[in-house]
Specification:
Elements lengths: L2 H18 L4 E5 L4 H11 L4 E6 L6 H17 L3 E5 L3 H10 L8 H22 L2 E3 L5 H6 L21 H10 L4 H5 L13 H5 L3 H9 L9 H16 L1 H4 L9 H4 L1
Parallel strand pairs: 1-2, 1-4, 2-3
Helix pairs in contact: 2-7, 10-11
Length: 258
């Protein structure tokens, strides 16, 4: 993998997009995970304005510490980087209080609400600073299994690493000397109080999912685990198709408009 060339390509792409649209820079939510760490590092390398935002909501202490450590590292190494630490827990609690359903029985709805509150915060900061909200999703998450929140972390202006597999993200992160704690941490979306990992939620590793995303041969030749992973991938791909594809539009026939 030509990590150095890919890195330069993405940084140039970010710079050109920003310049073309007459914008000042980028706003990125920092979770303490590898995807947001790499994305924010690439943005910092553009020398444009970069605003990093930590937005804890009942956040796991280790995730929060990794996020703050990464933010401080980028601020020390790049003069164009600044940050905000905005605790959204109280805002989330207020929303929980007024929901007209049993919160305990609708965990997924409220987990996704965390992501959507963060998206709203990022867009407020971006608009106030003439910046773009930058997505941190990778290829498998965004186009394979749809492992993101619609209008949450999926609500962004640009996606610089969405054509990179997770394994490539790790490779480039190592090349760019992103802190080891983040590289070694088990991937998690940070939306659950029990700190479940991505693999625990999905039932397969990212490496397995990357294989499934590319597999097009005879399934009869696969072993038991491979068949299981392929089944998981196909199920999630179909279930989350509404996220991966453009929003359906009801096109009215011209004859009905006359």
């Amino acid at each position: 993998m030509k990590t150095e060339k890919i890195t330069k390509y993405i940084v140039n792409w970010l710079n050109n997009y920003c310049k073309k649209n007459n914008l000042s820079g980028f706003v990125i939510g920092i979770s303490g995970g590898i995807d947001s760490a790499l994305t924010s590092t690439l943005c910092a390398m553009t020398n444009k304005k970069v605003i990093l935002v930590s937005m804890p909501i009942r956040q796991n202490k280790n995730e929060y510490k990794r996020a703050i450590k990464h933010i401080k590292t980028l601020e020390e190494n790049h003069k164009n980087v600044s940050s905000y630490d905005i605790d959204l827990t109280s805002a989330f609690l207020e929303i929980e209080k007024v929901m007209p359903f049993d919160i305990s029985k609708n965990n997924l709805a409220m987990a996704n609400s965390r992501s959507r509150i963060r998206m709203t915060t990022l867009y407020s900061l971006a608009q106030a600073n003439n910046c773009l909200v930058v997505g941190t999703g990778n290829k498998v998450e965004d186009f394979g299994i749809g492992f993101f929140t619609k209008y949450g972390d999926g609500g962004v202006d640009i996606s610089p690493i969405a054509d990179l597999n997770k394994t490539t993200v790790w490779e480039i992160a190592k090349e760019l000397n992103i802190i080891e704690d983040i590289i070694l941490a088990a991937p998690t979306d940070g939306l659950w109080d029990d700190n479940r990992t991505d693999e625990e939620q999905i039932g397969a590793s990212y490496k397995e999912l990357e294989w499934a995303m590319e597999y097009n041969d005879d399934e009869s030749n696969l072993n038991k685990r491979e068949k299981e992973v392929l089944k998981i991938y196909k199920k999630l791909n179909k279930m989350n198709e509404h996220k991966i594809k453009p929003i359906p539009i009801c096109i009215i026939p011209e004859k009905l408009k006359k």
